Amino acid sequence: MSQISEAEAVVMDVLWGEHPLGADEVVAALAGRGWAEPTIKTLLNRLLTKGAISASRDGRRYLYSPVLQRQAWVAEQSSGLLDKLFDGRVAPLVAHFSQRGELSAQDIAELKALIEGLDHD
């Protein structure tokens, strides 16, 4: 599947949240972004071409549903980020956020719990 752009990911997020939706419903969901209706319809068409969504006829309109699952997209994006910025390693990523003071006490507690869970497998 072709790479999904940031704008296309915003449209996907709407469809991951609820589907199937008509183009008018996607436009309404994205009203706060200031995008024109033709822009959103172009993004839907691009996603169709890429195979990220499907369209089924419902009378005179089409209903759109995601084919690409959010979990698969997140895994692909996070793997690409790790490879690009941190040589495919998670520890330098966590260290980066730690050094910048961007890990909250809750983040640290959750990371510790995850690591402890790994140690007991």
UniProtKB/TrEMBL annotation:
Keywords: DNA-binding, Transcription, Transcription regulation. Pfam families: Penicillinase_R (PF03965). It comes from the Bacteria. Belongs to the BlaI transcriptional regulatory family. This is BlaI/MecI/CopY family transcriptional regulator.
